[in-house]
TrEMBL record:
Annotated signal sequence range: none
Name of the protein: NAD-dependent epimerase/dehydratase family protein
Superkingdom to which the source organism belongs: Bacteria
Domain NAD-dependent epimerase/dehydratase: 4-240
UniProt-listed Pfam families: Epimerase
Amino acid sequence: MKRILVTGSSGQIGSELVAALRARYGEDQVIATDIKPSQSPAAAGGPFELLDVNNRQAFLDIARKYNIDTVIHLAALLSATAEANPLFAWELNMGGLLNALEVARELKCQFFTPSSIGVFGPDSPKDLTPQLTIQRPITMYGINKVAGELLCDYYYRKFGVDTRGLRFPGLISYLTPPGGGTTDYAVAMFFEALRCGEYSSYIDKGTFMDMMYMPDAIEAIIQLMEADSAKLIHRNAYNVSAMSIDPELLAAEIRKLLPSFKLTYQIDPIREQIAQSWPNSLDTSAARNEWGFKPRYTLEAMAQDMLCQIAARNP
Ligand code: AKB
């Protein structure tokens, strides 16, 4: 029986992941934690604890209290926020990860943490970026994520911790808004399209990035965690993606359902520069071959579902 501790449980991934894990393994088997008292549905229906991941002793105490066997470490700053506060990003993204890995080592837990397309930089191949290639990111977030992948490899090799990870692209979801990412324009476009019929994008026309719908991201985490460890050659971390889009392609998809939707541009030079340093599209063959990654949502299916779900929640 699994006993899973999730950090950053009120965030974009955490809110949906905690609900999915509770549905699968039982409500009391998943301990949601976050630095803030939670308004999120993730906290309801199962144990919740306040936790600052930079406090290693508190982390360990909560993990021991619930006798956990799995750590899912999500607490981190995303790319744009990390760029605005790089020192704090290093402290939280690296300090929190080190503490989470130490808890996993001490209590012999299985371990998951997300990496990102942010691990790539201007020197990486832009199209169908390979699983193994040059990783010279230009952002603090990307540097944290590359160091994080290597640290997870180290804990696997040196201490035998069963570490696993995914390089997420932009994640599109309607339940909890993302905070401080570069790919967030895609989520905002849906909400603004329904709210006022227009959206001003901070990412430029023609800047392509990979994206994936949240149900596919949740499914991928669960599938990877349940995969046969012996088959995971690239365990920290796999390229995953379901679509490669720019603002124009997304707007065209929205217009199929909202024909009068208007897209304008007001480019944010910082986020545009980050986006341009990231891949246009990823090669996901390692994830497909090693543990059967197969996203269900195409751009069309994702856009239809997003618009229906947001409309249903905001009548
Ligand atoms: C961000 O934009 O920072 C994240 C990511 C791609 O890691 N969504």
